[in-house]
Structure formats: C-alpha cells, structure tokens
Amino acid sequence: MNGMRFAFLCREKPSPTGKKVAIIGAGPAGLSAAGYLVCHGHEVHVYDKLPEPGGLMLFGIPEFRIPIYRVREGYKELENVFEVKFYPNTKISFGDEKEEGDDFIKNVIDFNELVQNYDAVLISTGTWKSSIPNIEGVELKGVYPALGYLFRIKSAKLGHLSWDEVVPLEGKRVIVIGAGHTAVDAAMESLLLGAEKVYMSYRRTIKEAPAGAYEINLLQKRGVKWLELTVPVRIIGENGEVRAIELQKCKLSEPDESGRRKPIPIEGSNFQIDVDYVIFAVGQKPTPPKGADIAIDKWGNIIVDARHMTSMEGVFAAGDVVTGPSKVGRAVLDGLLAAESMHRWLMEVRK
Amino acid sequence: MRRILHVDYSLCIGCETCQGVCDFLHHGKPNIKIYYTMSGLPIPINCRHCEKAPCMEICPVGAIYKDYDGAVIIDPQKCIGCFMCLAVCPFGVPSFDVKVRAITKCDMCVDRRRLGMEPACKEMCPAEAIFFGKPEEVEERVRQRTAEKIARERISTESFESFGKML
What we know:
The complex is a heterodimer of chains A (351) and B (167).
Chain A: E1 20-24, H1 28-39, E2 43-47, H2 56-59, H3 68-80, E3 85-87, E4 90-92, E5 107-109, H4 111-117, E6 120-123, E7 129-130, E8 143-145, H5 146-157, E9 173-177, H6 181-192, E10 197-202, H7 213-221, E11 225-228, E12 230-238, E13 241-252, E14 263-265, E15 271-274, E16 277-280, E17 284-285, E18 315-317, H8 320-323, H9 328-348
Helix pairs in contact in A: 1-9, 5-6
Chain B: E1 4-7, H1 17-25, E2 33-36, E3 42-45, H2 54-58, E4 64-66, E5 72-74, H3 84-88, E6 95-97, E7 102-104, H4 110-114, H5 120-124, E8 130-133, H6 135-157
Antiparallel strand pairs in B: 1-8, 2-3, 4-5, 6-7
Domain 4Fe-4S ferredoxin-type (chain B): 3-22, 38-69, 70-99
Protein name (chain B): Ferredoxin
Pfam families (chain B): Fer4_11
C-alpha cells in the first residue's frame, strides 16, 4: 500500500461513539481531520465540490511533486477501511460569485441544513478565489488565474476533463505573473505541455521570490525567461484575445519599518512582449461556505478560538480557510488539532 | 530485524507534512523539521538512525542504545545532558528537552512500531519521499521512484512534443 495514511493514528476502526461529523472540503486539512475522527470512533461524512477527494494535493499541485497514487490510495483507504462517506461534486451553500474548481458542482446543500444533521461540522474549504489585479485587458480571452489553469490541466490528467477543454499550449507563448509556488508550477506545466516560450514576471528580485531562488534557477535552466523587477501595466488584445503584455520596470525602495522593500515603478520604462496567455499567480483568497453566518476577518479568513471553533457553536474550521494560503503540512497539522478539539468537545460538551 | 527510516532529499517537496504530523504526535516539538537553505531549497532534518551511530559511541554514560528494529534510542533516565551526542552527530539532530531534562530525538515512532504501525512521517508524506522497512525493500522502492524521475527529466528536456500529457 503506497497511499497517504490519513488515519495514521490507528490500524483499524474502533468501536463507534455514535457521533456524526460532517467535513466540508476534502483537502489536506479535511482528510487529516477525517483520519483522526474515524480513529476515535466517529462517523465521518466528507463533502467536496470536486469530483474526487484530495483538494489541491490532487487538483492543484503537479504530479511531479505529489504522485497521484499517494492521494488516491490514501482517500480510498479512508473510504474502504474506515467507512468515511464521501460526497463529491457537492458544494455547501451557494453564492453567485464563482471560484476556481466550481466546474464540477452537481449538488448544492444548504449550510444550515448540514449543521442541523450532524453533531459537529468542520469547515476546511481552503482558498479557491484567485486575486487578479485590476488592469486594462484582464477580461481578454487568454488571461487565466494560475490555480484555474493548473486545475484544468490536473483535471484532464485525472480523467475528469477532456484534453480539448484544457488550454492548448503547443507552440504558445506564456507569461506567468508572480514567483510563488503556484507561479513556478504554472510555468513548469506550461513547459511540459509544449509551450514555445515561457516568461515569468515578478515585481521584486530572485532573492525575494517566495518560491526560493533554487526553483527560479531551475526554471531558467529549462529555458524560462525570468523578468524580475517588472509589473504588468496592461494586456493588449486583438479580436478579444491576448496578443501582448505591457510591463513596466521597477526598482526596490529602501527597506520600510517591516524590512520589506517595495517595488517602485520607473517612469517611461515600459516595454511590450508578444504573448498568447497571461497567467496570474499573485495570491488566493479564502473561500468559506457562502451565506454561512460565521465570523470572518477583513481578509475573509474564518475566525476561530483556541478550540478551533468558529463563532457558531459546534462548527469548527481548519486549514487555509483559517490561516490563508500556506502549505500542505500546515493544513494537515491544523486539521489534526481541530479534530482533536472536536473530539474533546463531542465527548465532553455534547454527551 | 533491521528496519530503516530513509528520507530522500531529492523527492522532498518541502510541504512540511512530516513536520506537521510529528509536531502533532509530540505536542509542539517535532523530531523532523524542514530547514530552508540560502537558495530556498527545503531540507528535512531528522535522526537517520545510523548503523555505526557516533552518538552511541561517544555517550559517556551509555544512555544511547539500539532497539530490535535498529532504531537509535536515548534513555532519558540515564542521559546526563552533556550534549556530546550533538557534538558528534553529522546531522545536528539531538535536542535538549527542558521538561524531561534530557536529550531527546526521533525514536522512529517506537510506540507506533510496538502496535504494528509505521513511523507517522512516512505514513503521511504526500510525495512519498520518506521510506520505512527492511533495507533491501526501501532500496528497491527508492530506485523505482528514481527511475520514474529520470524518465520524466529525460522526456521534458527533449523537444516539446506535448509529452507532458503522458506524465
């Protein structure tokens, strides 16, 4: 067996407690929490908007980083051995605003209805809303948020989408804006899928790149043109499609109080590059269930107390939807800690 | 039966899952931790349970021993906290625990192994960069993974003919 063992705390299902828990979001936080809870005898149902559990581990992060079998065999063990019930293609509560990964939704369940039907609920829905800067031309065909871009490529690899529905890359010129892990992955997948030229634009230098200089250097060795100290000013279209991008050079300010050096655009340094696609990898925002009456902070993250409980009694939250975009491991730990707290609450408070 | 816990640095993606589960099991004091180099490369550091463990040889009070799987274990009752093990460890692993007033480190999840389970970091690593088992089993699996990686490298450096789809 080569899957992730989300229920690593036990070998087999213990005797049941009779408690029923719903988890919204089957990413690293949700699946780790599910693993903890089944090892403590609770019945666990997991809801997810995607066609299969795994979250970003399966639908965002490329296969050359996380092998597909690792995640698939992992959730299958939860399903087959620990009797976790998965409800794929299901979104909890629905707002008008679209997020990445909404393509596969078949069922919608009201959040309050779900809360009524379970002894406790965990929200681990992550950060699926992409930030796109408000510049001229972002509405053009050929402009994509990096997560949505990677999501479609992975969906095709996983067999949920036909390759005809994936952005064709052979012979295309791509520019990725940003220098985090998502930007690096978008650039790498573009290369692997046959892009003719890949550019990366970042407003600071390689030294500040969140993905680290090592990853950026690796991409440069593979032929990616690294354009540091540049910001996109506008995207130029032709017949509604991207034709080129206009970038402006910048320089870094002296460090401010926080030690960060701000990029300052240089007047008259604008230049254009001919590209077919513009991919924005400049951040993700939290996506808690829409319409749920729970407190969020000014960035949209769910507010939790020391018990990982939200402002609604019996509703807990964990992972990126609480912390903002982080790492698989931090979501796993947060999911485990929240589940531990849920278990305590279920056994003590809700006898 | 000799069993090894092997962390493969070339397969590690720096996701910190090993650290997260170890942190959870050890209440905020993980025995495996990711360190980032100057170039931003993530390197997980933990005890490698050496065959000829320098810490065991140097320990003046004989507090370090090997269990039935070959895991290098420190007895907190015997440990005098002199840090000689840290001085000779090639990986800088031994760590002083103020609560138990002794050096602690990874024990290859001894409690879990007693129950027939495997080290938690290995169980949960999404990248399958951590291996556990008999040396020959681990080696076979590592080579299999390496073969996949070599194939991928070779294909992606060839002319771009949409090979990415095959991967």
